[in-house]
Amino acid sequence: MWLWSPSRCLRIAGDLMRIAVRTVLCLALVLVPACEPRRCARRPTSPVKTYSSAALREVRVIGIVPFAKGAATEDVAATVGELFASELQQAATARVVVIRDDVGHMIAPPGLQPGGQPTIDGLIRARRELGLDAVMLGEITQYRPYGSPVIGLEVRAISCKTGDTEWIGTGVFDSSSPEVADLFRWYCFTQRAEDLPLSTERQLLTSPRSYAQFVAHFVAAAFTTQ
């Protein structure tokens, strides 16, 4: 007569338990419906389109000057520029230098004025006096703060050594677009690590500063992934 030892019984029970767990997990993957954007681990697609050159890998120190107002106002451009600088400082592997005056306002050195083409002299001085490999210039291309907010942004990284454009990031964040709305929900959830009520999401969506930070976050992220 064949007898099962206690150790053999425990081993078989463990095998059966592992099989049961695997079965439950497989059924969950099949039966659970697709998650809402805010709960998805996978990030929705960003509207930012980029160009980068091979020389971008050599950039170790990058400076940021005030953004050009473009379609917005100078105050809006200043706010977006500051938010972008903050996001880039948190995410970039290169050292980010924000050029400021004595009272802390972001300023543009001579030859690097917002909205204009940087001069060779300005780039040479930025390299020699500030130790910059490249300088970032930005412009607000579209702006609507209320209703369904819209912010269009173009940011360029210009080499202080050659004057060439090493990187361009451009995108229009139109909150009436389903893709951008999904991205905003995902951003709110991942930044706060909790599922926000819809009323709170709407409050953030209608806050010009919150929406500008959302835009700055993804434009900066597009640069850091190059």
Structure description:
- This protein has 226 residues and is α/β, with parallel strands linked by helices.
- The protein is built from 6 helices and 6 strands.
- The chain has helices at 6-31, 74-91, 120-130, 178-192, 198-205, 208-224, and strands at residues 49-52, 61-64, 95-98, 134-144, 150-159, 165-174.
- A 6-stranded mixed sheet has the order 1-6-5-4-2-3, sandwiched between helices.
- Helix 2 (74-91) packs across helix 6 (208-224).
- The longest helix has 26 residues, at 6-31.
- The chain starts with 5 loop residues before the first helix and ends with a helix.
- The model is unreliable at 19-39 (pLDDT under 50).
Task: Spell out the key features of this protein.
226 residues; alpha/beta; six-stranded mixed sheet; 6 helices
Distance, first to last CA: 70 Å
Oligomer: single chain
Tell me the CATH topology. Answer: Rossmann fold
Q: Reading side by side through the largest sheet, how are the strands ordered?
A: 1-6-5-4-2-3
Please identify the structural class as seen in this structure: alpha/beta
Q: What is the H-and-E element order?
A: HEEHEHEEEHHH
Strand fraction band?
15-25%
Poorly predicted ranges (pLDDT <50, ≥5 residues)? Answer: 19-39
Task: Count the E strands.
Answer: 6
